[in-house]
Write a structure and sequence with these properties.
Elements: H1 11-31, H2 41-46, H3 61-72, H4 94-106, H5 117-133, E1 141-145, H6 148-166, H7 171-174, E2 183-187, H8 192-200, E3 209-211, E4 231-236, H9 248-257, E5 261-265, E6 290-294, E7 306-310, H10 313-320, H11 346-382, E8 386-387, E9 395-399, H12 403-416, E10 422-426, E11 429-435, H13 443-459
Parallel strand pairs: 2-3, 2-4, 4-5, 5-6
Antiparallel strand pairs: 1-7, 6-7, 8-9, 9-11, 10-11
Helix pairs in contact: 1-3, 4-11, 5-11, 6-8, 6-10, 11-13, 12-13
Bound molecules: pyridoxal-5'-phosphate.
C-alpha cells in the first residue's frame, strides 16, 4: 500500500510548510524573553498526546508542524534565552540558525568532498579559522563530530594508534589485545566524559593514573608518575565547575621528554585562547598534540557540533581512513578524518557563525560571558551567598548554606522559572553551577537573575542571603 502523500513535490505545499516553520520559529524566539525558562509541569504533561499509535495514513506537513510547535514548543527549555545558566549550553547565533536551515535544505552528505564541495570547503576554512583564533599550530587539522565527548574519543584514537605505532604495534589493524601497555595519565578533575572516551577507545576508565589537583581543580604538575613506554597524557582547559585550566607547560614538557602524546579536553575552556584578556589562563595549551572542543557550547552554534583537532593530520588520517572502491579519496574527505561516514555539514554552520562574529566578535563573546559570570557571583556574594570557586572564566559555583539548604534553594529556583541553574558537588559541598555561555545574556539578565536568586533564597528556611531568618 502506498501512502497517498508519497512522491508529491508540490511547490505551493513546500512553500506553505517552510513559511509556517519560519513564522513559528520566529514566534518561539521572540517569546524567549518573556517566558519561564523551564517548561511548566502542564506543558510537559501535555507531551503525552504525541505518544499515539502511528496511523497508516499520513498527514499534511503543515498540520504536523503546527501540532509539533503547539505541543512541543511550550515543553522546550529556554536554553536559547538569556537566563539559562545550566550545564554549559550556548544559544544559537542568528547566522548559525539560518545556516543550519540551509544545511537541512541543501541536504548534503558530507562524507566525501565529491559528495558536497561546499561542505568540504566550509569545513576546511572553519577549521583553519578556529585554529588561528585559538592560536593552535599552523597545519592543525581535524574533524567535526557530535560534541566534545566524541571529539575526545576521536583524538584519543589517534593518540592510541600513534603511541603504539611508535612502540612497533599496529593497534588500528591488530587491536589492543596483546599490545604493549599504554600509560594513560589524567587529572583527578578530568570531565566524566573523558574517562568515558578512554573506555570507548579501549584504554579503560579505571586504569588511568590520576594526577592530584589544586583547590580550583587544576593539575599543577605535581604527582607525575614514573612512566616509560607508550604514554598518553590528558589535560583539561576549563573545569566544568570552576572553569580552571590545568597548568599545561610543566606537564607537556614532562610528556614530551617521554615521547608521550598530550591531549587537551577543552570543550569550552579552550575558547579562552580566543580572548586576549583570558588567554593567559590556558598558557602553553598550543604545545599539545590534540584538542577536543565544542561549537555548541561557547561558539553558540546549534547542536550537535564538536571538533576534534590534531597537530599532525596524518595521525588522524591514519586512524580514521577507510577504503572501499566506491569511496574514493576525493580531496579533503570528512569520512577519512572522522569516526562518521555520512555526516551533517556542520562546517557550513561553523563557517557562518565565525563570519557573523568576526575574530573580535569571538573574543568579545568570550570576554563578555566571563565578565557576566563574575558580575553574577559578585551580586550574590554581596547578598550573603557563598561563592565556592575563583571565578576566572564563565563558571561560578555558589552555596546557600548547608547541603540540604543549597539543594532546596536550587529546586526553588528551578520551579520559580525566572532562570535556570543546576546543582553540583564541588570540593565536597553541594553548590549551584552558574555557567554564562550565551550570546543572548545581557547585563540586565544577570542583574534580574541575581535579584531573583536572592529573593528565592530568603524564602527558603536556612537559605543564607541577607535578610534570611537565621
Ligand atoms: C561538556 C563537556 C564535555 C562533553 O561535551 P559534549 O559536547 O556534551 O559531548 C567534555 N569535557 C568538558 C570539559 C565539558 O565541559
Amino acid at each position: 500500500m502506498t501512502n497517498s502523500r508519497q512522491g508529491r513535490d508540490d511547490a505551493a505545499e513546500l512553500g506553505e510548510v517552510l513559511s509556517l516553520a519560519s513564522r513559528l520559529a520566529q514566534e518561539h524566539l521572540s517569546g524567549l524573553a518573556g517566558r519561564r525558562v523551564a517548561p511548566s509541569a502542564e506543558a510537559v504533561e501535555l507531551l503525552g498526546v504525541l505518544d499515539r499509535e502511528l496511523q497508516p495514513e499520513g498527514r499534511e506537513p503543515a498540520d504536523v508542524i503546527s501540532e509539533l510547535a503547539a505541543v512541543g514548543g511550550p515543553a522546550t527549555v529556554a536554553m536559547n534565552g538569556g537566563r539559562y545558566f545550566g550545564f554549559v549550553n550556548g544559544a544559537t547565533l542568528p547566522a548559525a540558525l539560518a545556516a543550519d536551515w540551509l544545511v537541512s535544505t541543501w541536504d548534503q552528505n558530507t562524507a566525501l568532498a565529491v559528495m558536497s564541495p561546499v561542505a568540504a570547503a566550509c569545513e576546511a576554512t572553519a577549521i583553519r579559522w578556529i585554529a588561528e583564533l585559538l592560536e593552535l599550530p599552523p597545519g592543525t587539522d581535524g574533524a567535526f563530530v557530535t560534541g566534545a565527548t566524541m571529539a575526545n574519543a576521536t583524538c584519543l584514537c589517534a593518540a592510541r594508534d600513534r603511541v603504539l605505532l611508535d612502540a612497533g604495534w599496529d593497534a588500528r589493524d591488530d587491536g589492543l589485545i596483546g599490545a604493549p601497555e599504554v600509560t594513560v595519565v589524567a587529572g583527578e578533575e578530568a570531565h566524566a566524559t573523558l574517562f568515558k572516551s578512554l573506555g570507548i577507545v579501549g584504554l579503560g576508565r579505571d586504569r588511568v593514573v590520576r594526577l592530584p589537583v589544586d583547590a580550583e581543580g587544576a593539575v599543577t604538575g605535581e604527582g607525575l608518575p614514573e612512566a616509560s613506554g607508550p604514554l598518553i597524557v590528558c589535560l583539561q582547559a576549563g573545569n566544568v565547575n570552576s572553569g580552571a585550566s590545568d597548568r599545561f607547560e610543566p606537564v607537556i614538557r614532562w610528556a614530551r621528554e617521554r615521547g608521550g602524546w598530550v591531549h587537551v579536553d577543552g570543550a569550552f575552556g579552550l575558547w579562552a585562547a580566543a580572548s586576549p584578556a583570558r588567554r593567559h589562563l590556558v598558557a602553553g595549551v598550543q604545545e599539545a598534540d590534540s584538542w577536543a572542543t565544542d561549537g555548541h557550547k561557547w561558539l553558540n552554534v546549534p547542536y550537535d557540533s564538536g571538533l576534534a583537532l590534531v597537530r599532525d593530520r596524518a595521525a588522524l588520517a591514519h586512524t580514521m581512513g577507510s577504503d572501499a572502491a566506491y569511496l574514493p579519496e576525493s580531496g579533503r574527505d570528512a569520512m577519512h578524518m572522522s569516526p562518521q561516514s555520512s555526516q551533517r555539514a556542520r562546517g557550513v554552520v561553523m563557517w557562518a557563525a565565525l563570519q557573523s562574529l568576526g575574530g573580535s566578535g569571538v573574543a568579545d563573546l568570550v570576554e563578555r560571558c566571563c565578565e557576566l559570570a563574575a558580575r553574577f557571583a559578585d551580586r550574590l556574594a554581596a547578598g550573603g551567598v557563598e561563592v565556592l570557586n575563583d571565578v576566572v572564566l564563565n563558571q561560578a559555583v555558589v552555596a546557600f548554606g548547608d547541603d540540604p539548604t543549597t539543594d532546596a534553594v536550587i529546586a526553588a529556583i528551578q520551579a520559580d522559572g525566572r532562570l535556570w541553574a543546576g546543582p553540583t558537588t564541588w570540593r565536597g559541598r553541594r553548590g549551584m553551577r552558574i555557567s554564562v555561555s550565551s550570546w543572548r545574556t545581557t547585563t540586565a539578565d544577570i542583574d534580574a537573575s541575581a535579584a531573583a536568586v536572592l529573593e528565592i533564597t530568603e524564602m527558603v528556611p536556612g537559605g543564607c542571603a541577607d535578610g534570611a531568618e537565621p
